[in-house]
Amino acid sequence: MSKQLQQSVADAARDNWIDRWAPDWLKPYARLSRFDRPIGWWLLLLPCWWSSALAAIADNRPLPNVWHIVLFLIGAIAMRGAGCTYNDIVDRDYDGRVARTALRPIPSGQVTVNQARAYMFAQCLVGLVVLLQFNWFAVGVGVSSLLIVAVYPFMKRFSDWPQSVLGLAFSWGALMGWAGHFGSLGLAPVLLYMGGIAWTIGYDTIYAHQDKEDDALIGVRSTARLFGENTKPWLTGLYGLATILFAASLFLAGAGWLSYLGLAIGLLHMANQIRRLNIDDPDLCLELFRSNRTYGLILFAAMVADALMLSRSFV
Fold it and tell me: What is the DSSP code (8-state) at residue 277?
């Protein structure tokens, strides 16, 4: 086994299942998909689940559509993998010059660009099969996100706000759950989407602080570099804005007190992120970034419990 295949990428969890169990031929492709770093598909998935729960609340259903919940899980894993593969193809020259990303499969020579392209299309095919299980309106909404996904990897070269474009892409699921349920959109899911964008800019700014020194050397731009020492005030504003938009979305959907309780607990969780943050500690930045899965699950669990409570109150 080559030394490169034995080595984990810098921000992968220690002793992850790929390093321990995956056959050598699979490891580079699994790493292209970031299967060793599941936080990415969680953060893509959670707005989908929120939207499904929000639709259940609005429609007085006791639970989100379970089939949709499963489809979103499969789709998020597949499309996050495809997006990461695409990002690595586009950024292959930059990744080789950044310590945290130098061991990624393409810059380290484990996978060729053509092999990565073929793998990306295979993952997109899985995503397409998942998308076609929904109504045609939802299919159209899903396809509409592809332009944002295509543009994102280039934004760090031209804008100090690439995290905002990531927010547009990663929060798209906030529209999908509602569209899959009702076959239409409304202000409630749009506000949920806007809140997701603010949330994403916040957590990805924390993530980007890991690379700020290398980014400065090679000319890559980010909100981490833009905010600098003012990151905590910016995060306070972004997380506060996300909370306000989420609350407005819940109000329009007719949510009950359990959803607002979850939102309040989530706000305390985000405040703790800001309190603990040290922008010069990469390990802590990664830990706090990953903790946003907990925030998303708190909000989802509260919304599901609320849907169940509200539906029974009308029986």
Answer: -
pTM above 0.85, yes or no: yes
| pLDDT higher at 207 or 9 | 207
Other Cβ atoms less than 10 A from the Cβ of 117: the count is 13
Give the range of the structural domain holding residue 102, as residue numbers without chain letter: 24-49+64-310
Contacts of 122 (CB under 8 A, 6+ apart): none
CATH code of 124's domain: 1.10.357.140
Q: Which two tokens stand for residue 259?
A: 């959803």
* Rounded CA separation 66/173 (Å): 16
315 in any annotated domain: no
In sequence order, which residues have a C-beta less than 8 Å from that of residue 130 and are 6 or more positions away? 71, 74, 75, 78
Nearest to 79 by CA among 44, 114, 54: 44
Position 315 scores a pLDDT of 44
Residue 14 is assigned to a structural domain of this protein: no
pLDDT at 184 > cutoff 60: yes
* Tokens found for residue 188: 């409630």
Query: pLDDT digit string (tens) for 48-88?
Result: 999 999 999 999 999 999 999 999 999 999 999 999 999 89
Number of folded domains in the chain? 1
Tokens of 79: 């499309």
Q: Is residue 58 in a domain?
A: no
